[in-house]
Here is the input.
Amino acid sequence: MTNLRADLKLVVGAATAKALAKGLKIETVSDLLRHYPRRYAERGQLTDIAGLELGEHATVMARIERVNKRRMKARNGTLLEMVITDGKRRLQCTFFNQAWREKELVPGKNGLFAGKVTAFRDVLQLANPEYELFDAERQAEAMDDFLAEIIPVYPAAQGIPTWVIAKAVRQVLDVLEVDEDPMPIELLARYGLPSLESALRGIHRPSSWQALNSARDRLKWDEAMAVQLIFAQRRHSLVSRPAKACPHTEGGILDAFDKRLPFALTSGQQEIGEEIAGDLSTEHPMNRLLQGEVGSGKTVVALRAMLQIVDSGRQAAMLAPTEVLAAQHARSLREMLGDLGQAGELGAAENATRVTLLTGSMGAKERKKALLETVSGEAGIIVGTHALIQDTVSFADLGLVVVDEQHRFGVEQRDALRSRGSDETSPHVLVMTATPIPRTVAMTVYGDLEISALREMPVGRSPIKTSVVPVAERPAWLDRAWQRVREECGKGHQAYIVCPRIGDEPASDKGDKRPALAVLDVAPELAEGQLKGLKIGVLHGRMPSDDKDAVMQAFSRGDLDVLVATTVIEVGVNVPNATAMVIMDADRFGISQLHQLRGRVGRGSVPGLCLLVTETPDGTTTRERLAAVESTTDGFELSRMDLELRREGDILGAAQSGKKSTLKLLSLLRDEEVIAEARARALEIVEKDPALGNYLGLAHMIADVVDEDRVEYLEKS
Ligand code: ADP
Ligand code: MG
Here is the structure.
């Protein structure tokens, strides 16, 4: 009899236990049973050899076709050559100096063969594969395994092939007794899920495909629940440091601002505005993520939240990733507020507040003034970089922190914010991101945040037409691209040309790809060639900030026709007259980055044009990525495609051999419902019993299913 917490050694023996620990970090009975098969082979069905990929560690079920022994004079040994087949294709296997194997490797026998797929003279092969033959004598011993219709194939590692894992699992299942199901019985009943024990038996030794599916459904729930419980507990822990309630003030600065807004809020802005207003009215600290593409109107939403705080006599801080962006935010907030933001100045409105910019590079005198306004409470809204929360800036009474650009801002930083409220309170937190991610990913990656999304653009955004320029197939299209740039500039508009690299780095000789195109090479080349006669400026991150500002301002004023730049223009730059963008070596950028970049055009009344120049041939995943960007400008749709193309593994860690990963079965794309339900149930449970004292099984399950390191990773990425 053994349970999940039992010592693996006692069941499978010391040698196997050691190999499992070394090769796959499997240490307990639970670890082993949570090491699910990667796929299943159906008895009598050989593995498709055509599907093998070079370099992978593969296990194939195949038949031995022929075996041939040779003496190798040069290396003074023997070479055993074997050809195995799936009935259609053949795979070459070789064994050096293992002539004795000839006795057991008899043509006609079936078996499992495992090893790293290599190639020799363009023929795929397995060198020194490990194997397990399905022969008559051994069938008695391994009967269960090989008579089963559905044969599990495990993620394996060097020295620990799938059948060794299968045998260990069989030994464990033979004596397993799960004394108590960690999942509450009501929950299992509600969702029609099998018990843990039957799910574990079902996934390792399925009696039918249907039994397998039901087992997977249950084990997916375990994963979703474990992750959501962690986040639910984290959210609950916020309560220990309450916020101050800042309910809406009738007739305050927010009402005054709303009255003079030059446009009507979109319904999304309205809804989210109400959610936030509700959050701010309670002592439970708000911890909300606001997603919305560039230009979707997040800033207005954030400003309205800040004004509700100011109405309560408290302060709001807005943090941007760079000083340039902080200055831009301060400017646009002041603009939007007009005389409502001019407290202390002549002509200020009644109820007015003050927007104060506070950055590290300010002159000493200016900075002192800003610090004073902040500590005295004269400043209702303080704008700065993330450094604002790290250094010694004192606030009079910080009630809300708005963070722009989530992807550069981690959990520890969010936690640091919490300590900045006065009297042991915690400020409310609103995080804004312009990189939309599918809801399920958000629920998993930012699970401790409430999530709101602005999906519609306010009216007046011009469409952006995106086209791939495939230089490999259609070299002439590149000339056409430059011609289009000249046309746009001829109409008095402006263009961006984006390159992946600056070009002042020391040459690196590693890698087989040619180095990406560089700003410092492309700009002079175009100036002498295709774009001769146009006024061309250069912008990149390693320029002194005065130079950067000067170039940006020249471009804003229209003194430059073309700006050749790195991705420094990705965020925040707003020049409505810029209508075209050419992205060189577009394949070097990710989907979301390309999408962000093109958001720089189409900001005025004229439709934008974005050309993605690439040398990558058609038919590759890279080209699929570019085609995705070409096909839609809906950021949420794009992030979904991105996830599909990257295969989720890259985001949350694949069920790769030798690595424990948190989500082995749960798919962020396909299991949306499970994730959403688990999130709701986890919240209920934690509300009732924050420490899970009455749910010890669940507490254990979290530890079994979720690797602590992985949680950290989920939070940081
Ligand atoms: P984001 O911060 O999401 O990039 P902004 O809040 O800066 O977007 O809004 C982009 C532009 O759209 C701004 O000029 C803003 O004044 C304008 N805008 C915002 N909301 C609306 C609306 N409901 N109707 C019309 N224009 C709007
Ligand atoms: Mg913005």
